[in-house]
Amino acid sequence: MDTDVVTLFFALLATFAQLVVVAAVLLWLGSLVSPAIARVKASVLAVVGPQALTLAAVVALVCTLGSLYLSEVAHFPPCRLCWFQRIAMYPLVVVLGVGAIRRDVGARISGAILAGLGACVSVWHLLVERYPTLESDSCDPLNPCSMKWVEELGYLTIPGMALSGFALILVLLAAARPVSLEEQP
What we know:
Layout: H1 3-33, H2 35-48, H3 52-73, H4 80-102, H5 107-130, H6 158-175
């Protein structure tokens, strides 16, 4: 498959993640001032909450497979900051996957810590991309962190896509609710 098609697909997934995150934040903020929006938020949480941990694990898996595609198939070598983002994302597949299988909503805490740290690295990586003078000596001069291997839709680069995944995982973890006894198999 053509790398341009695959990176566009990942960019569209990241854009969808961004839309979901913005909608969730607006729903949360709106629920603080409007009882009607608070009822909508409660309805959404009732539907999404029991499945949110599984959805977060799927997002982490897709992000992991995407990063592996970019390095192993498209042959884009990951820079040092990309590796730190991977260090945060890859374990999320296991932590959230096991949490979802065991229906352990307690996995939210470890997942949120990893996703939060990964999001911070993604933000810093985006800043380094936009302002290469921020790049330090810790980045490899042969594979600088400021290099943009991908830029889709006029703004989405690899760390932007990673940030979208981390943000969606954080929103899903905030929405995760324990499965009630009636819903358990």
